[in-house]
Amino acid sequence: MSLRAKLTLGTATAASLLLLAGTATAAQPGAPGIGDPYYPNAGNGGYDVSHYDIRLNYQPADDTLSGTTTILAKTTQDLSRFNLDFLLKVSSVRVNNKVAAFSQSGGELVVDPRGTLREGSNVTVVVTYADVPSTHAVDGYTSWKRTPDGALAIDQPDIAPWWFPSNNHPTDKARFDISVAVPTGVEVLSGGLFGGTTQQINGWTRWRYRSLEPQATYLAFIAIGQFEIRQSTAPNGQPVLNAYSERLGADHGASVASIERTPEVTEFLEGHFGPYPFEAQGGVVAPGIGFALENQTRPTYDAGFFRRGSNTYVVTHEMAHQWFGDSVSVHGWKDIWLNEGFASYAEWLWSEHVGEGTVQENADFVYASYPADDGFWQVLPGDPGAANQFHGAVYDRGALTVHALRAEIGDEAFFRLLQEWPAAKRNGDATTDEFIAFAEALSGKQLDELFRTWLFTPVKPAVAPGSGGFAARAAAAAEPKSYQKIRETHELLAGHRH
Q1: Do the Cβ atoms of 132 and 142 come closer than 8 Å?
Q2: Are residues 397 and 447 in the same domain?
Q3: Within-domain flag for 421
Q4: C-alpha dihedral over 152, 157, 163, 168, to 10 degrees?
Q5: Cα(228)–Cα(246) distance, rounded to whole angstroms?
Q6: Could you write out the DSSP letters of every residue in 166-212?
Q7: First CA to last CA across the chain, in angstroms?
Q8: Is residue 282 part of a domain?
Q9: In terms of C-beta distances under 8 Å and separation of at least 24 residues, what long-range contacts does 473-478 make, across chains too?
Q10: CA distance 350 to 353
Q11: In terms of domains, do 283 and 334 share one?
């Protein structure tokens, strides 16, 4: 969940670029949050981040994380001070090479640059810190996951405050350089291109990763511990890096049999969604995550997804998010169905591709699985509320909404939409209203009633979606071969923090 106790913000601008010390009466602290309707204090106003350079040291023996994050940003207003979302203990802050005053409270790092930062100015912020991430909690919850051999900085919607200071909301994406030094013999995984390792004289090794495309802060991650790392090349020429925890035990074989097929799954999805939007592919499997998450370029999976054998459905789900969720992110967390509905629908497309049940059979079965009096239908995918953000209805009813749209506008327009929407919104964010308007413009049809029925009405729609769909057929729908695996996948995916 997002950090609650937010103080006001501002942003920093170069002393050499119109830094006016105390004379600009118009300068104000930035807004205390970006304005997300679910988490109104998430993120910060007044500046936009373009790049994070995160350089860390981590000691698994005592869970100590230390280092420096350098933030490149541009002000969007005249600022007198600004906030960064961060929990760990800070020792110093510099703004444009000058020592800045700062304070910390309630998960907020409040920075006073000792002067006005003018709108449109470039800002360099350097934050140095050291702490034990697992000792920090927000609302009683700790996103940082300490493991027997290291740690996992993986969660949604919040993980960044446990390991780097940031403007923590999907609407402020940035590029990342991440490097982590650990005792030699310990591995570090992150997203983007693997930049190799460097042996240090103190018996430690530094691991480097670079993301070439903008990403949301919650999609940046690190996994530290004992891992088997496999590197290869995808059919499209991209580097593939997969990693498997040495603690997988009996789940190791099924994990490898699933994750090593990531390039095959990606190639299939490119046929529906257009060119893969990022620079690398891969996946990480480890116990202790509790869910799977679509970390940009390299999703992470709990070992439980492979407890009953290989599972390419969860791989399909997380790789579909690279288009729907990562490249095109939510504008606000209430728009989460745009991520989960399309990723779940991708599983149905994969099911049809591998001959384990058509899309229509999956839609019929899901529709029939929930009686009209089931609380499932009371959760509105288009606005589920923060407590239900990862409810099964967001996944399954979200996918039913996608299929209802396909039935309404026809396959030609629908499959054009699957490619043109992520292309139009690439590296950006979107709202449900924007998606509806886009679908109407592309199809030439008025779709308000369709989306009102499937996303915003707390009753079971009268008929199942799809060509010739009707309640009687759906009531007797047989379970597709794929659906047991899909259902298990969704139950684990719903393990995100609520």
Answers
A1: no
A2: yes
A3: yes
A4: 160
A5: 7
A6: B--STTS-EEEEEEEEEETT-EEE-SSEEEEEEE-TTSEEEEEEEEE
A7: 7
A8: yes
A9: 473/364, 474/364, 474/367, 474/368, 475/368, 476/368, 477/361, 477/364, 477/365, 477/367, 477/368, 478/361, 478/365
A10: 5
A11: no
Residue count of the chain: 498
Spans in the chain with pLDDT lower than 50:
1-24, 469-472, 497-498
Three-class SS state of 424:
helix
Inside any domain, residue 400: yes
* pLDDT for the residue numbered 467: 53
Place of tokens 């100015």: 121
What per-residue confidence (pLDDT) applies to 460?
A: 97
Q: Which residues contact 318 (CB under 8 A, 6 or more apart)?
A: 283, 292, 293, 294, 299, 301, 343
- 364 and 346 within one domain: yes
Mark whether 310 and 285 lie in a shared domain.
yes
Examine the domain organization and report whether 311 and 354 are in the same domain.
no
Q: How many CB atoms lie within 10 A of CB 322?
A: 26
- Give the pLDDT of residue 479: 74
Buried b (16+ CB within 10 A) or exposed e, 152-188: bbbbbbbbbbbbbbbbbbbbbbbbbbbbbbbeeebbb
Residue 450: strand, helix, or coil: helix
Residues 481 and 375 in one domain: yes
CATH code for position 482: 1.10.390.10
C-alpha 409, offset from chain centre: 29
Strand, helix or coil at 220?
A: coil
- Tokens, residue 319: 């790789």
Question: Taking the model in full, what pTM does it have?
Answer: 0.92
Is 462 found in the same domain as 332?
A: yes
Residue pair 154/300 in contact (Cβ under 8 Å)? The answer is: yes
State residue 307's pLDDT score: 95
Give the closest residue to 224 by CA, choosing from 316, 174, 162: 162
Q: Which amino acid is at 289?
A: I
pLDDT of residue 490: 75
Last residue of a domain, one of 322, 345, 363: 322
Measured CA to CA, the distance from residue 133 to residue 336 in angstroms comes to 28
Total number of domains in the chain? 2
Element (H or E) spanning 152, and its range?
strand 150-153
